[in-house]
């Protein structure tokens, strides 16, 4: 059984299309004289909101030493498994030999990273920091895998209130706290 739909005949204004054209022109003229909302992106950048979780990077202490001790907590907590760490031993003659180990290789695949910030939260050494960089690009997949040297280049150096890397200062801190 078919259902018949009655169609109403078009009015004169609907048949002429003139009111629709004028309504469109009104909208066009209204937007033509308003201030522009488009940014010239490379030159102008939007403000970064507080609490933005950006690119994870590695940072060094004020003396230029690696803070990462290859505990691999960030690798284990990463939901998309974007972090790969190869732990390595520090040489016995190194000035940082009292630190047990350091990363031989540290890679973050930015194509897999979901910018959740769990790696920064779980890092006991505060070696991973999320930077305010949000525009990453590359010509191949390999360019978007940040290796250890690139991660340190992006992260830079941050002040460190802890003195665990300096044997002498760490002993002085413990000594001052005991008195």
Features:
single chain; 179 residues; alpha+beta; Alpha-Beta Plaits; three-stranded antiparallel beta sheet; two-stranded antiparallel sheet; 6 helices; 5 strands; 28% helix
Describe the structure.
Helix content is 28%, strand content 15%. It is an alpha+beta fold and 179 residues long. The strands form two sheets. A three-stranded antiparallel β-sheet has the order 2-3-5. Strands 1-4 form a two-stranded antiparallel ribbon. The chain is elongated. It contains six helices and five strands; from the N terminus they run ααβαββαββαα. The protein has a domain at 55-171: Alpha-Beta Plaits (2-Layer Sandwich).
Query: What are the segments in which pLDDT stays under 50 over at least 5 consecutive residues?
Result: none
Beta-strand level of the residues, as a percent range? 5-15%
Q: How many helices in DSSP terms?
A: 6
What characteristic shape results from the CA principal axes? elongated
Structural class: alpha+beta
Oligomeric organization of the protein chains: single chain
Percentage of residues in helical conformation: 25-40%
Distance between the termini: 97 Å
Major sheet: 3 strands, antiparallel
Order of helices and strands: HHEHEEHEEHH
Care to count the β-strands?
A: 5
Q: Overall mean pLDDT score? A: 85
SSE blueprint and pairings:
Elements: H1 12-16, H2 18-32, E1 55-58, H3 73-77, E2 83-89, E3 101-109, H4 118-122, E4 128-131, E5 145-146, H5 148-155, H6 167-178
Antiparallel strand pairs: 1-4, 2-3, 3-5
Task: Give a short overview.
This protein has 179 residues and is an alpha+beta fold. It has six helices and five strands, in the order ααβαββαββαα. The strands form two sheets. A three-stranded antiparallel β-sheet has the order 2-3-5. It has a two-stranded antiparallel ribbon with strand order 1-4.
């Amino acid at each position: 059984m078919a259902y018949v739909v009655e169609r109403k005949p078009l009015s004169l204004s609907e048949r002429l299309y003139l009111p629709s054209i004028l309504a469109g022109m009104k909208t066009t003229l209204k937007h033509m004289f308003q201030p522009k909302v488009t940014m010239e992106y490379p030159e102008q950048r939007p403000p970064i909101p507080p609490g933005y979780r950006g690119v994870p990077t590695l940072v060094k202490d004020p003396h230029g030493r690696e803070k990462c001790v290859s505990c691999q907590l960030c690798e284990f907590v990463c939901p998309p498994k974007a972090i790969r760490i190869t732990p390595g031993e520090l040489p016995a003659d190194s000035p940082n030999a009292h630190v047990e180990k350091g990363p031989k290789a540290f890679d973050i695949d930015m194509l897999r990273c979901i910018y959740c910030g769990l790696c920064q939260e779980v890092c006991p050494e505060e070696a991973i920091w999320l930077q305010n960089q949000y525009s990453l690009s590359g010509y191949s997949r390999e360019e978007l895998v940040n290796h250890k040297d690139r991660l340190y280049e992006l992260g830079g150096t941050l002040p460190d209130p802890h003195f665990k890397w300096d044997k002498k200062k760490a002993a002085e801190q413990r000594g001052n706290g005991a008195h």
